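Quick one, T. Sequence first:
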Amino acid sequence: MKKRFFFNRKEKNLQIDSEEKSFERCVLCGAVTDVPVQMPVSERKCYIPGAGQLCRDCCRELYGSDDLGTTAESEICKI
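Structure tokens:
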């Protein structure tokens, strides 16, 4: 997905399209994830406490799984 930026002349700053604002970004690679911003942390699959949301690719690369809900917290904290 390409980033879509537009310039708001009244506010004189660069803004990101509202579609991208509604989803989390991966804290490792910066990709827009499929996780809505409003989703509670307890329901997220690739969320690392104290760090943030990962995309599925980064989660698989780091932990070998795209569901950290089944991974022990002690394993998650080894980063």
